[in-house]
């Protein structure tokens, strides 16, 4: 579709976003029409399973920690693209650990909390529509020569879709900080102090709250294939290690369970649908 809609223009990007996301939402809405109770349950379960990525995130986090513990830099660099879009060829052990940990923090919100919340609020169209928004942002929401304008709509839509999920993730991270030896106070302090300086209004929240809970410092020079970004520091403490990455994965698992509870409460309040 991009070959048909692409132009170095924001309006073309809006058209691309509307067609791509709108078609998925429409399919979800059509699929849920005139379904019996059990059909609705099955369809909701299938849509949610399709949209969730928390289990894959946990597996990738543990695999990265295993390779770093074994000093397998080649293997760790090969694995990193499954977690984030940074250039692994320029990263050492410390850089790989930080990149993986920041990705675990951000994707706990994007791949688990947000789909659950959108599903609880808007059912099958909501969960599938959110996954379309988030995936399209990962495809074209970049500030490089090709996508600076065309990908603007995808990036901004994703920002809006994740405003509430990111903050729910931050609150759950703070509440569950004792799971990884941290405190809610430290997590909330890092959130309040550092999140606003991050270029993303949502990634800053989840990364800062995670850094505070773990007692590590995230941010700094971040190299993508399209260029280098100098990220602000998040949290206080040393640079993260593979041990901290495993703690972040454990936190991610706890936050995912917490998100299931929150989504269930929302669905119950809305009438048990």
From TrEMBL:
<dbReference type="GO" id="GO:0015420">
    <property type="term" value="F:ABC-type vitamin B12 transporter activity"/>
</dbReference>
<protein>
    <recommendedName>
        <fullName>Cobalamin biosynthesis protein CobD</fullName>
    </recommendedName>
</protein>
<dbReference type="Pfam" id="PF03186">
    <property type="entry name" value="CobD_Cbib"/>
</dbReference>
<keyword id="KW-1133">Transmembrane helix</keyword>
<comment type="pathway">
    <text>Cofactor biosynthesis; adenosylcobalamin biosynthesis.</text>
</comment>
<feature type="transmembrane region" description="Helical">
    <location>
        <begin position="37"/>
        <end position="58"/>
    </location>
</feature>
<dbReference type="InterPro" id="IPR004485">
    <property type="entry name" value="Cobalamin_biosynth_CobD/CbiB"/>
</dbReference>
<dbReference type="GO" id="GO:0009236">
    <property type="term" value="P:cobalamin biosynthetic process"/>
</dbReference>
<comment type="function">
    <text>Converts cobyric acid to cobinamide by the addition of aminopropanol on the F carboxylic group.</text>
</comment>
<dbReference type="GO" id="GO:0048472">
    <property type="term" value="F:threonine-phosphate decarboxylase activity"/>
</dbReference>
<comment type="similarity">
    <text>Belongs to the CobD/CbiB family.</text>
</comment>
<feature type="transmembrane region" description="Helical">
    <location>
        <begin position="12"/>
        <end position="31"/>
    </location>
</feature>
<keyword id="KW-0169">Cobalamin biosynthesis</keyword>
<keyword id="KW-1003">Cell membrane</keyword>
<keyword id="KW-0472">Membrane</keyword>
<dbReference type="GO" id="GO:0005886">
    <property type="term" value="C:plasma membrane"/>
</dbReference>
<keyword id="KW-0812">Transmembrane</keyword>
